[in-house]
Amino acid sequence: MLNQQLAKLLQTVLQKLNYPTENVEVIVSNRKDLCDYQYDGAFKLAKILHKSPLEIGSEIVTVLNNLPESSDLFQKVELLPPGFLNFTLSDSFINQILNQMKNEEKYHIKFPNKKKIIIDYGGPNIAKPLHVGHLRSAIVGESIKRMLKYAGNEVISDVHLGDYGLQIGEVIYGLQEKEIPIDKITLKDLEEIYPNISERCKKDEDLKEKCALITKQLQENNPEYHAYFEKIKEISGNDILRIYEYLDVSFDLWKGESDAYPFITKLTKILEEKHLLEESEGAKIISVEKETDKKALPPLIYQKSNGAYLYGTTDLATIYERMEKYHPDEIIYVTDYRQKMHFDAVFRVCEKIGYTKTTIFEHLGFGTVNGRDGKPFKTRSGTSPKLDTLFAEVKESFLNSSDKNKEMSEKDLDIIVNAIIKFADLQNNYEKDYIFDISKFASVVGKTGPYILYTYLRIESILKNETIPTKDLNKSIYEECDRKLRLKLLELEQTLLYAVENKSPSVLANYIYDLCVNMNAFYEKNHINKLEEKEKKENWLILLSFSNKVIKDMIDLLGIKIPERM
Ligand code: ARG
Protein backbone atom coordinates (compact mmCIF):
# COMPACT_ATOMS: atom_id res chain seq x y z
CA MET A 1 0.00 0.00 0.00
CA LEU A 2 1.37 3.37 -0.99
CA ASN A 3 1.17 5.10 2.38
CA GLN A 4 2.77 2.05 3.98
CA GLN A 5 5.48 2.04 1.38
CA LEU A 6 6.21 5.67 2.24
CA ALA A 7 6.09 4.90 5.95
CA LYS A 8 8.61 2.12 5.47
CA LEU A 9 10.93 4.47 3.69
CA LEU A 10 10.70 6.89 6.57
CA GLN A 11 11.44 4.08 8.97
CA THR A 12 14.65 3.43 7.08
CA VAL A 13 15.52 7.08 7.48
CA LEU A 14 14.73 7.10 11.20
CA GLN A 15 16.80 3.99 11.68
CA LYS A 16 19.77 5.66 10.01
CA LEU A 17 19.31 8.55 12.40
CA ASN A 18 19.06 6.18 15.36
CA TYR A 19 15.58 7.47 16.14
CA PRO A 20 12.61 5.36 17.27
CA THR A 21 10.91 3.71 14.33
CA GLU A 22 7.59 2.64 15.85
CA ASN A 23 4.18 3.85 14.68
CA VAL A 24 5.41 5.71 11.64
CA GLU A 25 2.42 6.93 9.70
CA VAL A 26 2.28 8.70 6.36
CA ILE A 27 -1.14 9.98 5.40
CA VAL A 28 -2.85 11.47 2.39
CA SER A 29 -2.29 15.21 2.58
CA ASN A 30 -4.97 17.32 4.14
CA ARG A 31 -3.54 20.30 2.25
CA LYS A 32 -3.60 19.04 -1.30
CA ASP A 33 -2.52 22.46 -2.52
CA LEU A 34 0.80 21.93 -0.77
CA CYS A 35 1.61 18.26 -1.21
CA ASP A 36 0.29 14.75 -1.88
CA TYR A 37 1.23 12.93 1.31
CA GLN A 38 2.42 14.10 4.70
CA TYR A 39 4.29 12.92 7.77
CA ASP A 40 3.55 14.65 11.08
CA GLY A 41 5.67 12.38 13.27
CA ALA A 42 8.37 14.96 13.93
CA PHE A 43 6.20 16.47 16.64
CA LYS A 44 5.98 13.25 18.58
CA LEU A 45 9.68 12.57 18.13
CA ALA A 46 10.47 16.05 19.35
CA LYS A 47 8.96 15.23 22.73
CA ILE A 48 10.95 12.02 23.05
CA LEU A 49 14.22 13.40 21.73
CA HIS A 50 14.05 16.85 23.31
CA LYS A 51 14.78 18.56 20.04
CA SER A 52 12.63 20.89 18.00
CA PRO A 53 10.37 19.31 15.36
CA LEU A 54 11.97 21.57 12.80
CA GLU A 55 15.44 20.27 13.61
CA ILE A 56 14.28 16.65 13.42
CA GLY A 57 12.40 17.35 10.23
CA SER A 58 15.42 18.81 8.58
CA GLU A 59 17.57 15.83 9.56
CA ILE A 60 14.96 13.53 8.07
CA VAL A 61 14.85 15.50 4.83
CA THR A 62 18.62 15.38 4.46
CA VAL A 63 18.84 11.62 4.94
CA LEU A 64 15.74 11.00 2.84
CA ASN A 65 17.05 13.01 -0.07
CA ASN A 66 20.22 10.96 -0.03
CA LEU A 67 18.44 7.64 -0.37
CA PRO A 68 18.73 6.38 -3.95
CA GLU A 69 14.98 5.54 -4.25
CA SER A 70 13.93 9.07 -3.28
CA SER A 71 14.66 10.56 -6.66
CA ASP A 72 12.30 8.03 -8.30
CA LEU A 73 9.53 8.51 -5.77
CA PHE A 74 9.44 12.21 -5.10
CA GLN A 75 9.24 15.34 -7.11
CA LYS A 76 9.97 17.17 -3.90
CA VAL A 77 10.18 16.68 -0.15
CA GLU A 78 9.54 19.81 1.83
CA LEU A 79 9.79 20.75 5.45
CA LEU A 80 7.14 23.19 6.52
CA PRO A 81 7.46 25.01 9.85
CA PRO A 82 6.88 24.11 12.60
CA GLY A 83 7.78 20.58 11.45
CA PHE A 84 5.48 19.08 8.84
CA LEU A 85 7.04 16.90 6.19
CA ASN A 86 5.36 17.28 2.84
CA PHE A 87 5.81 14.85 -0.01
CA THR A 88 5.03 15.51 -3.62
CA LEU A 89 5.19 12.32 -5.65
CA SER A 90 6.96 12.22 -8.98
CA ASP A 91 4.82 11.90 -12.08
CA SER A 92 6.57 8.76 -13.16
CA PHE A 93 6.01 7.10 -9.80
CA ILE A 94 2.31 7.97 -9.82
CA ASN A 95 1.95 6.45 -13.27
CA GLN A 96 3.96 3.41 -12.35
CA ILE A 97 1.48 2.61 -9.58
CA LEU A 98 -1.49 3.36 -11.79
CA ASN A 99 -0.19 0.95 -14.40
CA GLN A 100 0.19 -1.72 -11.79
CA MET A 101 -3.37 -1.11 -10.60
CA LYS A 102 -4.61 -1.15 -14.16
CA ASN A 103 -2.88 -4.36 -15.15
CA GLU A 104 -3.38 -6.52 -12.13
CA GLU A 105 -6.40 -8.26 -10.77
CA LYS A 106 -8.41 -6.32 -8.20
CA TYR A 107 -6.22 -3.27 -8.71
CA HIS A 108 -3.19 -4.95 -7.21
CA ILE A 109 -4.84 -4.70 -3.78
CA LYS A 110 -3.73 -7.44 -1.42
CA PHE A 111 -6.48 -8.19 1.06
CA PRO A 112 -5.38 -9.82 4.31
CA ASN A 113 -6.59 -13.00 6.08
CA LYS A 114 -9.41 -14.59 4.18
CA LYS A 115 -12.14 -15.79 6.50
CA LYS A 116 -15.39 -17.69 6.51
CA ILE A 117 -18.05 -15.18 7.44
CA ILE A 118 -21.78 -15.59 7.94
CA ILE A 119 -23.71 -12.39 7.50
CA ASP A 120 -27.26 -12.20 8.82
CA TYR A 121 -29.19 -9.28 7.35
CA GLY A 122 -32.52 -8.32 5.87
CA GLY A 123 -34.47 -10.01 8.64
CA PRO A 124 -37.99 -9.25 7.41
CA ASN A 125 -40.96 -10.64 9.29
CA ILE A 126 -43.38 -12.67 7.24
CA ALA A 127 -46.99 -11.53 7.17
CA LYS A 128 -45.97 -8.09 8.39
CA PRO A 129 -45.19 -5.25 6.03
CA LEU A 130 -41.49 -4.56 5.44
CA HIS A 131 -40.48 -1.17 6.75
CA VAL A 132 -37.67 1.28 6.18
CA GLY A 133 -35.56 -0.42 8.87
CA HIS A 134 -35.63 -3.66 6.90
CA LEU A 135 -34.71 -1.69 3.80
CA ARG A 136 -31.68 -0.30 5.59
CA SER A 137 -30.61 -3.73 6.78
CA ALA A 138 -30.88 -5.01 3.20
CA ILE A 139 -28.90 -2.13 1.70
CA VAL A 140 -26.15 -1.96 4.30
CA GLY A 141 -25.93 -5.74 4.65
CA GLU A 142 -25.77 -6.36 0.92
CA SER A 143 -22.97 -3.85 0.53
CA ILE A 144 -20.95 -5.29 3.38
CA LYS A 145 -21.48 -8.75 1.96
CA ARG A 146 -20.23 -7.65 -1.45
CA MET A 147 -17.18 -5.91 0.01
CA LEU A 148 -16.23 -8.92 2.11
CA LYS A 149 -16.60 -11.21 -0.90
CA TYR A 150 -14.55 -8.89 -3.07
CA ALA A 151 -11.82 -9.06 -0.44
CA GLY A 152 -11.69 -12.80 -1.00
CA ASN A 153 -13.58 -14.01 2.06
CA GLU A 154 -15.97 -16.92 1.91
CA VAL A 155 -19.24 -15.23 2.76
CA ILE A 156 -22.55 -16.93 3.50
CA SER A 157 -25.54 -14.65 3.70
CA ASP A 158 -28.73 -15.56 5.54
CA VAL A 159 -31.97 -13.58 5.46
CA HIS A 160 -33.13 -14.95 8.83
CA LEU A 161 -36.84 -14.36 8.34
CA GLY A 162 -38.91 -13.55 11.38
CA ASP A 163 -41.35 -16.38 10.76
CA TYR A 164 -42.27 -17.87 14.11
CA GLY A 165 -43.25 -14.91 16.23
CA LEU A 166 -46.54 -13.71 17.65
CA GLN A 167 -47.56 -12.16 14.33
CA ILE A 168 -48.10 -15.63 12.84
CA GLY A 169 -50.51 -16.57 15.60
CA GLU A 170 -52.33 -13.28 15.06
CA VAL A 171 -52.64 -13.80 11.34
CA ILE A 172 -53.79 -17.41 11.71
CA TYR A 173 -56.41 -16.22 14.19
CA GLY A 174 -57.56 -13.55 11.76
CA LEU A 175 -57.75 -15.96 8.83
CA GLN A 176 -59.83 -18.38 10.86
CA GLU A 177 -62.06 -15.61 12.11
CA LYS A 178 -62.80 -14.56 8.55
CA GLU A 179 -63.15 -18.22 7.58
CA ILE A 180 -60.69 -17.92 4.73
CA PRO A 181 -59.71 -21.43 3.60
CA ILE A 182 -55.99 -22.10 3.31
CA ASP A 183 -55.95 -22.46 -0.46
CA LYS A 184 -57.79 -19.17 -0.90
CA ILE A 185 -55.47 -16.95 1.16
CA THR A 186 -54.10 -13.95 -0.74
CA LEU A 187 -51.42 -11.38 -0.05
CA LYS A 188 -54.15 -8.79 0.31
CA ASP A 189 -55.78 -10.86 3.10
CA LEU A 190 -52.48 -10.92 4.98
CA GLU A 191 -51.95 -7.21 4.51
CA GLU A 192 -55.39 -6.47 5.90
CA ILE A 193 -55.51 -9.01 8.71
CA TYR A 194 -52.21 -8.32 10.37
CA PRO A 195 -52.75 -4.64 11.24
CA ASN A 196 -56.34 -5.35 12.25
CA ILE A 197 -55.61 -8.14 14.73
CA SER A 198 -52.42 -6.58 16.03
CA GLU A 199 -54.34 -3.38 16.83
CA ARG A 200 -57.08 -5.36 18.57
CA CYS A 201 -54.53 -7.38 20.57
CA LYS A 202 -53.18 -4.18 22.03
CA LYS A 203 -56.54 -3.52 23.67
CA ASP A 204 -57.75 -7.04 24.26
CA GLU A 205 -55.63 -9.21 26.59
CA ASP A 206 -57.79 -12.30 25.98
CA LEU A 207 -57.32 -12.08 22.27
CA LYS A 208 -53.60 -11.61 22.71
CA GLU A 209 -53.51 -14.76 24.87
CA LYS A 210 -55.39 -16.69 22.20
CA CYS A 211 -52.95 -15.61 19.51
CA ALA A 212 -49.99 -16.41 21.74
CA LEU A 213 -51.41 -19.89 22.28
CA ILE A 214 -51.79 -20.43 18.55
CA THR A 215 -48.17 -19.35 18.10
CA LYS A 216 -47.03 -21.77 20.78
CA GLN A 217 -49.03 -24.65 19.34
CA LEU A 218 -47.62 -23.86 15.92
CA GLN A 219 -44.15 -24.02 17.39
CA GLU A 220 -45.10 -27.43 18.80
CA ASN A 221 -46.00 -28.56 15.31
CA ASN A 222 -49.78 -28.49 15.47
CA PRO A 223 -50.63 -29.78 11.95
CA GLU A 224 -53.57 -27.46 11.31
CA TYR A 225 -51.62 -24.35 12.23
CA HIS A 226 -48.63 -25.64 10.40
CA ALA A 227 -50.63 -25.81 7.20
CA TYR A 228 -51.62 -22.17 7.63
CA PHE A 229 -48.04 -21.27 8.42
CA GLU A 230 -46.71 -22.92 5.26
CA LYS A 231 -49.17 -21.02 3.12
CA ILE A 232 -48.57 -17.68 4.85
CA LYS A 233 -44.86 -18.16 4.50
CA GLU A 234 -45.16 -19.00 0.83
CA ILE A 235 -47.30 -15.97 -0.03
CA SER A 236 -45.51 -13.47 2.12
CA GLY A 237 -42.08 -14.92 1.31
CA ASN A 238 -42.71 -14.50 -2.40
CA ASP A 239 -43.59 -10.87 -1.90
CA ILE A 240 -40.49 -10.29 0.20
CA LEU A 241 -38.42 -11.99 -2.47
CA ARG A 242 -39.94 -9.71 -5.11
CA ILE A 243 -38.78 -6.67 -3.15
CA TYR A 244 -35.28 -8.06 -2.67
CA GLU A 245 -35.09 -8.84 -6.37
CA TYR A 246 -36.06 -5.27 -7.11
CA LEU A 247 -33.26 -4.16 -4.80
CA ASP A 248 -30.78 -6.63 -6.32
CA VAL A 249 -30.24 -8.11 -2.88
CA SER A 250 -29.77 -11.86 -2.64
CA PHE A 251 -29.12 -14.47 0.01
CA ASP A 252 -27.32 -17.80 0.04
CA LEU A 253 -29.64 -19.08 2.77
CA TRP A 254 -33.32 -18.30 2.87
CA LYS A 255 -33.86 -19.50 6.41
CA GLY A 256 -35.91 -18.26 9.29
CA GLU A 257 -36.52 -18.56 12.98
CA SER A 258 -38.68 -21.65 12.40
CA ASP A 259 -35.69 -23.49 10.91
CA ALA A 260 -33.89 -23.15 14.23
CA TYR A 261 -36.50 -25.15 16.18
CA PRO A 262 -35.11 -28.60 15.37
CA PHE A 263 -31.85 -27.54 17.06
CA ILE A 264 -33.36 -26.34 20.32
CA THR A 265 -33.23 -29.80 21.98
CA LYS A 266 -29.51 -30.19 21.35
CA LEU A 267 -28.81 -26.62 22.39
CA THR A 268 -30.80 -27.07 25.61
CA LYS A 269 -28.69 -30.13 26.39
CA ILE A 270 -25.49 -28.11 26.06
CA LEU A 271 -26.91 -25.32 28.22
CA GLU A 272 -27.97 -27.82 30.87
CA GLU A 273 -24.60 -29.54 30.88
CA LYS A 274 -22.95 -26.20 31.41
CA HIS A 275 -25.48 -25.32 34.12
CA LEU A 276 -26.44 -22.15 32.36
CA LEU A 277 -30.22 -22.47 32.57
CA GLU A 278 -31.94 -21.07 35.65
CA GLU A 279 -35.57 -21.16 36.74
CA SER A 280 -37.31 -17.88 37.31
CA GLU A 281 -41.04 -17.70 37.93
CA GLY A 282 -41.56 -20.81 35.84
CA ALA A 283 -39.51 -19.47 32.97
CA LYS A 284 -36.03 -20.62 31.95
CA ILE A 285 -33.49 -17.84 31.81
CA ILE A 286 -29.75 -17.42 31.31
CA SER A 287 -28.04 -14.67 33.24
CA VAL A 288 -25.55 -12.75 31.22
CA GLU A 289 -24.41 -9.93 33.48
CA LYS A 290 -20.78 -9.27 34.19
CA GLU A 291 -19.24 -7.57 37.17
CA THR A 292 -17.73 -4.94 34.96
CA ASP A 293 -21.08 -3.88 33.51
CA LYS A 294 -21.88 -0.22 33.99
CA LYS A 295 -25.49 -0.80 33.01
CA ALA A 296 -27.26 -3.97 34.10
CA LEU A 297 -27.90 -6.40 31.25
CA PRO A 298 -31.12 -8.32 31.90
CA PRO A 299 -31.03 -12.13 31.57
CA LEU A 300 -31.86 -13.79 28.28
CA ILE A 301 -35.26 -15.43 28.49
CA TYR A 302 -34.83 -18.87 26.98
CA GLN A 303 -38.27 -20.34 27.50
CA LYS A 304 -41.43 -18.73 28.80
CA SER A 305 -43.41 -20.30 31.63
CA ASN A 306 -46.01 -21.47 29.09
CA GLY A 307 -43.28 -23.38 27.26
CA ALA A 308 -42.94 -21.01 24.31
CA TYR A 309 -39.53 -20.03 22.97
CA LEU A 310 -38.45 -16.51 22.15
CA TYR A 311 -36.32 -14.36 19.90
CA GLY A 312 -33.15 -15.04 21.91
CA THR A 313 -33.77 -18.78 21.80
CA THR A 314 -34.10 -18.89 18.05
CA ASP A 315 -31.01 -16.77 17.58
CA LEU A 316 -29.05 -19.13 19.83
CA ALA A 317 -30.39 -22.23 18.13
CA THR A 318 -29.53 -20.70 14.76
CA ILE A 319 -26.00 -20.10 16.02
CA TYR A 320 -25.83 -23.71 17.14
CA GLU A 321 -26.71 -24.85 13.62
CA ARG A 322 -24.30 -22.41 12.00
CA MET A 323 -21.44 -23.47 14.23
CA GLU A 324 -22.05 -27.18 13.58
CA LYS A 325 -22.49 -26.84 9.87
CA TYR A 326 -20.12 -24.06 8.83
CA HIS A 327 -17.54 -23.47 11.58
CA PRO A 328 -17.44 -19.78 10.71
CA ASP A 329 -14.67 -17.41 11.76
CA GLU A 330 -17.20 -14.64 12.13
CA ILE A 331 -20.95 -14.16 12.37
CA ILE A 332 -22.19 -10.65 11.66
CA TYR A 333 -25.67 -9.27 12.22
CA VAL A 334 -26.93 -6.13 10.53
CA THR A 335 -29.97 -4.77 12.35
CA ASP A 336 -31.35 -1.65 13.90
CA TYR A 337 -29.09 -0.42 16.72
CA ARG A 338 -31.99 -0.77 19.15
CA GLN A 339 -31.40 -4.50 19.12
CA LYS A 340 -28.02 -4.02 20.76
CA MET A 341 -29.08 -5.38 24.15
CA HIS A 342 -30.54 -8.46 22.53
CA PHE A 343 -27.31 -9.23 20.73
CA ASP A 344 -25.17 -8.39 23.75
CA ALA A 345 -27.11 -11.02 25.67
CA VAL A 346 -26.97 -13.60 22.87
CA PHE A 347 -23.22 -13.10 22.41
CA ARG A 348 -22.59 -13.47 26.13
CA VAL A 349 -24.36 -16.79 26.09
CA CYS A 350 -22.12 -17.74 23.16
CA GLU A 351 -19.13 -16.84 25.28
CA LYS A 352 -20.39 -19.06 28.09
CA ILE A 353 -20.92 -21.95 25.72
CA GLY A 354 -17.40 -21.46 24.38
CA TYR A 355 -18.27 -20.38 20.85
CA THR A 356 -16.32 -17.15 21.10
CA LYS A 357 -13.08 -19.11 21.34
CA THR A 358 -13.23 -19.84 17.63
CA THR A 359 -15.68 -17.31 16.31
CA ILE A 360 -16.13 -13.57 16.42
CA PHE A 361 -19.70 -12.38 16.88
CA GLU A 362 -20.46 -8.87 15.81
CA HIS A 363 -23.59 -6.75 15.78
CA LEU A 364 -23.55 -3.87 13.31
CA GLY A 365 -26.37 -1.66 14.53
CA PHE A 366 -27.63 1.00 12.18
CA GLY A 367 -29.42 4.26 12.93
CA THR A 368 -32.88 5.41 11.96
CA VAL A 369 -33.95 6.85 8.63
CA ASN A 370 -35.64 10.16 9.32
CA GLY A 371 -37.77 12.51 7.29
CA ARG A 372 -37.02 16.18 6.76
CA ASP A 373 -38.75 16.89 10.05
CA GLY A 374 -36.14 14.80 11.86
CA LYS A 375 -38.75 12.19 12.83
CA PRO A 376 -38.76 8.58 11.54
CA PHE A 377 -39.30 8.64 7.80
CA LYS A 378 -42.83 8.51 6.41
CA THR A 379 -44.01 8.61 2.82
CA ARG A 380 -46.50 11.29 1.85
CA SER A 381 -49.32 8.80 1.91
CA GLY A 382 -48.99 6.75 5.03
CA THR A 383 -47.91 6.31 8.57
CA SER A 384 -46.12 3.04 8.00
CA PRO A 385 -44.36 3.52 4.67
CA LYS A 386 -44.71 0.49 2.47
CA LEU A 387 -41.57 -0.03 0.48
CA ASP A 388 -43.46 -0.14 -2.82
CA THR A 389 -44.88 3.28 -2.04
CA LEU A 390 -41.43 4.57 -1.21
CA PHE A 391 -40.00 3.25 -4.49
CA ALA A 392 -42.87 4.85 -6.42
CA GLU A 393 -42.36 8.21 -4.75
CA VAL A 394 -38.64 8.16 -5.43
CA LYS A 395 -39.29 7.31 -9.06
CA GLU A 396 -41.82 10.10 -9.39
CA SER A 397 -39.48 12.61 -7.85
CA PHE A 398 -36.73 11.67 -10.29
CA LEU A 399 -39.10 11.82 -13.25
CA ASN A 400 -40.28 15.27 -12.23
CA SER A 401 -36.78 16.61 -11.80
CA SER A 402 -36.25 16.83 -15.58
CA ASP A 403 -38.33 16.27 -18.73
CA LYS A 404 -35.50 14.25 -20.19
CA ASN A 405 -35.99 11.62 -17.52
CA LYS A 406 -39.44 10.85 -18.86
CA GLU A 407 -37.85 9.25 -21.92
CA MET A 408 -36.01 6.66 -19.87
CA SER A 409 -36.91 2.99 -19.99
CA GLU A 410 -38.64 1.37 -17.01
CA LYS A 411 -35.63 -0.84 -16.47
CA ASP A 412 -33.29 2.13 -16.30
CA LEU A 413 -35.67 3.98 -14.01
CA ASP A 414 -35.64 1.08 -11.58
CA ILE A 415 -31.85 1.11 -11.64
CA ILE A 416 -31.93 4.83 -10.85
CA VAL A 417 -34.41 4.37 -7.99
CA ASN A 418 -32.02 1.82 -6.53
CA ALA A 419 -29.07 4.15 -6.95
CA ILE A 420 -30.94 7.02 -5.31
CA ILE A 421 -32.00 5.02 -2.27
CA LYS A 422 -28.74 3.14 -1.86
CA PHE A 423 -26.38 6.06 -2.31
CA ALA A 424 -28.47 8.21 0.02
CA ASP A 425 -28.11 5.55 2.68
CA LEU A 426 -24.59 4.28 2.18
CA GLN A 427 -22.84 7.65 2.12
CA ASN A 428 -23.65 7.93 5.84
CA ASN A 429 -21.83 6.04 8.51
CA TYR A 430 -24.49 3.38 9.14
CA GLU A 431 -24.36 3.89 12.88
CA LYS A 432 -25.84 7.34 12.50
CA ASP A 433 -29.42 8.36 11.80
CA TYR A 434 -29.84 10.19 8.54
CA ILE A 435 -32.44 12.32 6.85
CA PHE A 436 -33.94 10.90 3.69
CA ASP A 437 -34.91 13.85 1.56
CA ILE A 438 -36.30 12.43 -1.66
CA SER A 439 -35.91 15.48 -3.87
CA LYS A 440 -32.35 16.10 -2.70
CA PHE A 441 -31.26 12.52 -3.28
CA ALA A 442 -33.02 12.24 -6.64
CA SER A 443 -31.13 15.21 -8.08
CA VAL A 444 -28.24 14.77 -10.52
CA VAL A 445 -26.30 17.43 -8.68
CA GLY A 446 -24.83 16.93 -5.25
CA LYS A 447 -23.75 13.82 -3.44
CA THR A 448 -26.31 11.53 -5.00
CA GLY A 449 -26.66 8.26 -6.86
CA PRO A 450 -27.77 9.99 -10.07
CA TYR A 451 -24.69 12.24 -9.95
CA ILE A 452 -22.41 9.20 -9.84
CA LEU A 453 -24.25 7.46 -12.67
CA TYR A 454 -24.36 10.62 -14.72
CA THR A 455 -20.61 11.08 -14.36
CA TYR A 456 -19.99 7.54 -15.47
CA LEU A 457 -22.28 7.76 -18.49
CA ARG A 458 -20.89 11.10 -19.55
CA ILE A 459 -17.37 9.66 -19.65
CA GLU A 460 -18.66 6.52 -21.38
CA SER A 461 -20.21 8.64 -24.11
CA ILE A 462 -16.82 10.24 -24.79
CA LEU A 463 -14.99 6.94 -24.78
CA LYS A 464 -17.54 5.27 -27.02
CA ASN A 465 -16.36 7.13 -30.11
CA GLU A 466 -12.68 6.57 -29.46
CA THR A 467 -10.34 3.62 -29.54
CA ILE A 468 -8.82 3.12 -26.13
CA PRO A 469 -5.13 2.24 -26.47
CA THR A 470 -4.30 -1.04 -24.76
CA LYS A 471 -0.89 0.13 -23.61
CA ASP A 472 0.33 1.54 -20.30
CA LEU A 473 0.25 5.16 -19.23
CA ASN A 474 3.44 6.98 -20.13
CA LYS A 475 5.47 8.87 -17.53
CA SER A 476 3.76 12.21 -17.91
CA ILE A 477 1.02 14.08 -16.16
CA TYR A 478 -0.27 16.97 -18.24
CA GLU A 479 -1.98 19.42 -15.95
CA GLU A 480 -3.39 20.03 -12.49
CA CYS A 481 -6.87 18.39 -12.78
CA ASP A 482 -5.20 15.45 -14.44
CA ARG A 483 -2.79 15.13 -11.54
CA LYS A 484 -5.58 15.36 -8.97
CA LEU A 485 -7.54 12.65 -10.68
CA ARG A 486 -4.55 10.33 -10.78
CA LEU A 487 -3.80 10.93 -7.12
CA LYS A 488 -7.42 10.15 -6.23
CA LEU A 489 -7.14 6.85 -8.07
CA LEU A 490 -4.04 6.09 -6.05
CA GLU A 491 -6.14 6.33 -2.90
CA LEU A 492 -8.35 3.43 -3.97
CA GLU A 493 -6.18 0.81 -2.31
CA GLN A 494 -6.08 2.30 1.15
CA THR A 495 -9.74 3.30 0.94
CA LEU A 496 -10.95 -0.15 0.07
CA LEU A 497 -8.71 -1.88 2.59
CA TYR A 498 -10.02 0.44 5.28
CA ALA A 499 -13.64 0.06 4.17
CA VAL A 500 -13.40 -3.74 4.24
CA GLU A 501 -11.59 -3.90 7.55
CA ASN A 502 -14.10 -1.60 9.20
CA LYS A 503 -17.10 -2.96 7.31
CA SER A 504 -17.84 0.56 6.28
CA PRO A 505 -19.60 1.11 2.96
CA SER A 506 -19.74 4.85 3.66
CA VAL A 507 -15.96 5.16 3.28
CA LEU A 508 -16.24 3.63 -0.15
CA ALA A 509 -19.31 5.67 -1.12
CA ASN A 510 -17.58 8.91 -0.22
CA TYR A 511 -14.50 7.89 -2.13
CA ILE A 512 -16.58 7.19 -5.22
CA TYR A 513 -18.18 10.60 -4.90
CA ASP A 514 -14.79 12.33 -4.61
CA LEU A 515 -13.52 10.42 -7.60
CA CYS A 516 -16.53 11.56 -9.63
CA VAL A 517 -15.93 15.17 -8.60
CA ASN A 518 -12.37 14.84 -9.87
CA MET A 519 -13.51 13.23 -13.10
CA ASN A 520 -16.02 15.98 -13.77
CA ALA A 521 -13.50 18.70 -13.02
CA PHE A 522 -11.06 17.03 -15.37
CA TYR A 523 -13.57 16.63 -18.13
CA GLU A 524 -14.94 20.14 -17.88
CA LYS A 525 -11.49 21.56 -18.34
CA ASN A 526 -10.24 19.16 -20.98
CA HIS A 527 -12.45 18.34 -23.91
CA ILE A 528 -10.63 15.29 -24.87
CA ASN A 529 -12.43 14.55 -28.17
CA LYS A 530 -11.15 17.70 -29.75
CA LEU A 531 -7.60 17.18 -28.64
CA GLU A 532 -4.90 17.34 -31.33
CA GLU A 533 -1.83 16.11 -29.44
CA LYS A 534 -1.86 12.38 -30.00
CA GLU A 535 0.18 11.18 -27.03
CA LYS A 536 -1.70 13.30 -24.54
CA LYS A 537 -5.04 12.22 -25.92
CA GLU A 538 -4.09 8.56 -25.77
CA ASN A 539 -3.01 8.85 -22.19
CA TRP A 540 -6.12 10.65 -21.17
CA LEU A 541 -8.26 8.04 -22.85
CA ILE A 542 -6.45 5.34 -20.90
CA LEU A 543 -6.88 7.34 -17.72
CA LEU A 544 -10.59 7.99 -18.19
CA SER A 545 -11.44 4.48 -19.17
CA PHE A 546 -9.54 3.24 -16.12
CA SER A 547 -11.39 5.72 -13.88
CA ASN A 548 -14.71 4.54 -15.21
CA LYS A 549 -13.78 0.93 -14.58
CA VAL A 550 -13.03 1.84 -10.97
CA ILE A 551 -16.42 3.54 -10.65
CA LYS A 552 -18.25 0.59 -12.14
CA ASP A 553 -16.52 -1.98 -9.93
CA MET A 554 -16.85 0.09 -6.79
CA ILE A 555 -20.52 1.02 -7.16
CA ASP A 556 -21.20 -2.65 -7.67
CA LEU A 557 -19.92 -3.12 -4.13
CA LEU A 558 -22.63 -0.69 -3.03
CA GLY A 559 -25.20 -2.72 -4.95
CA ILE A 560 -25.61 -0.02 -7.59
CA LYS A 561 -25.92 -0.82 -11.29
CA ILE A 562 -25.45 1.35 -14.34
CA PRO A 563 -28.39 2.25 -16.60
CA GLU A 564 -28.15 2.17 -20.40
CA ARG A 565 -28.94 5.85 -20.67
CA MET A 566 -29.99 8.79 -18.59
N1 ARG B 1 -36.88 -10.08 12.30
C1 ARG B 1 -36.14 -9.18 13.10
C2 ARG B 1 -36.84 -7.81 13.13
O1 ARG B 1 -37.61 -7.50 12.26
C3 ARG B 1 -34.74 -8.97 12.61
C4 ARG B 1 -33.91 -10.24 12.55
C5 ARG B 1 -32.45 -9.94 12.68
N2 ARG B 1 -31.62 -11.12 12.69
C6 ARG B 1 -31.47 -11.91 13.73
N3 ARG B 1 -30.72 -12.99 13.61
N4 ARG B 1 -32.00 -11.67 14.90
O2 ARG B 1 -36.60 -7.04 14.03
CATH architecture of the largest domain: 3-Layer(aba) Sandwich
How many domains make up the coordinates?
3
For the biggest sheet, the summary is: 4 strands, antiparallel
The SS-based structural class is: alpha/beta
- The average pLDDT value, as a whole number, equals 95
Widest beta sheet: strand line-up = 1-2-4-3
Share of residues in helices: 40-55%
The span between the termini is 36 Å
Count all strands and give the number: 13
Strand fraction: 5-15%
Broad shape:
globular
The CATH H-level superfamily of the largest domain is HUPs
Rg (CA only): 28 Å
Quote the CATH topology of the largest domain. Rossmann fold
Topology, element by element:
Elements lengths: L1 H15 L9 E3 L8 E3 L2 H8 L3 H14 L3 H4 E7 L3 E6 L1 H13 L12 E5 L11 H19 L3 E5 L7 H12 L9 H17 L1 H15 L3 H24 L17 H10 L4 E3 L2 E4 L13 E4 L7 H16 L3 E7 L3 H14 L6 E7 L2 E2 L16 H15 L8 H17 L7 E2 L2 H4 L7 H16 L15 H11 L1 H10 L3 H21 L8 H24 L9
Parallel strand pairs: 5-6, 5-10, 10-11, 12-13
Antiparallel strand pairs: 1-2, 2-4, 3-4, 7-8, 8-9
Bound molecules: arginine.
Arginine (ARG) binds next to strand 10.
